[in-house]
Design brief:
With 204 residues, the chain is an alpha+beta fold. It has one domain. 17% of the residues lie in helices and 20% in strands. The strands form two sheets. Strands 7-6-8-4-3-5-9-10 form an eight-stranded mixed beta sheet. It has a two-stranded antiparallel ribbon with strand order 1-2. It starts with a strand and ends in a 7-residue tail after the last strand. The relative contact order is 0.24.
C-alpha cells in the first residue's frame, strides 16, 4: 500500500488510503484488462449508456455508474470484491478503482445510496454510518424509481459519472501489483496513483 509520485526526480513511497476504510467507494473493472484500467484513469467512469464500447462490470442501471461502499467489515465484504472487482480468488484477475473520499465529501449529492443496506430500517445500516449516524462522507439514501431499479446490490451507490482525477487508487490481485505499478508509472508519470493488493485469503 504505497503512494508513488515524483519529487525532485525521485520517487517517494508512503502509506495512503486504507482500503478497509468505512465509506470508501469502489468500482470493479470486470475485464481485468490494464488497457481498460488506463482508459478509466484517463476518461473517468461513465455509465454504460455513455460508453462507445460498453464494458462489463459493476454497473446495474445503464444510466448510472455503480459503486460499492466499504462498510465496517472492509473491502473484501463488498459486492465489488465478490463480483466484478479484485480478489485473491484463483481465477480472478479483475481490478478495482477507488474514489477519493475527499471528492465524495465535497460532492455528496452527486452520489445516491440505493442499496438496502443504507435504508433507515436496515439492521446493518450502522456498518456504513459516521459519528452523526448519517451515511459516511455525507451520502444520502434514495430509493431508485421502479423503472430504474433492476437488481440493486445491497451496498450499491450510484452516480452519473466520476471524473478521472477523482480516481486515486487501484486494487489488484497481489501478484499483479508490481506489473500494474510499472504500467501506470509509464503512462501517468506525473500523477499520484496508489496500487494495493487485494489481500483476500486465497481460495481454490
Amino acid at each position: 500500500m504505497t503512494e508513488f509520485r515524483k519529487d525532485n526526480n525521485e520517487r517517494i513511497e508512503k502509506p495512503f488510503l486504507d482500503i478497509d476504510q468505512k465509506g470508501l467507494l469502489v468500482h470493479g473493472i470486470g475485464s481485468g484488462s490494464i488497457d481498460d484500467l488506463i482508459n478509466v484513469l484517463t476518461e473517468g467512469l461513465k455509465p454504460r449508456s455513455a460508453q462507445v464500447n460498453p464494458r462489463g462490470g459493476f454497473t446495474v442501471v445503464p444510466e448510472f455508474v455503480s459503486l460499492s461502499m466499504v462498510g465496517s467489515r472492509g473491502y473484501t465484504a463488498t459486492s465489488t470484491a465478490f463480483l466484478f472487482g479484485a480478489s485473491e480468488s484463483r481465477f480472478n484477475s479483475n481490478l478495482t478503482v477507488v474514489i477519493d473520499p475527499s471528492y465524495v465529501r465535497r460532492h455528496p449529492y452527486e452520489f445516491m445510496a440505493v442499496g438496502q443496506c443504507f435504508a433507515e430500517e436496515s439492521v446493518v445500516r450502522s456498518e456504513y454510518t459516521d459519528e452523526t449516524d448519517g451515511l459516511a462522507n455525507g451520502v444520502k439514501y434514495q430509493e431508485l424509481a421502479d423503472d430504474k431499479r433492476g437488481d440493486v446490490f445491497p451496498d450499491e451507490i450510484v452516480t452519473r459519472s466520476v471524473p478521472a482525477e477523482a480516481i486515486v487508487a487501484v486494487i489488484a490481485k497481489d501478484r499483479m501489483v508490481e506489473r500494474i505499478q510499472r504500467e501506470l508509472r509509464k503512462v501517468f508519470p506525473d500523477r499520484m496513483i496508489f496500487v494495493y493488493g487485494s489481500g483476500l485469503p486465497k481460495k481454490n
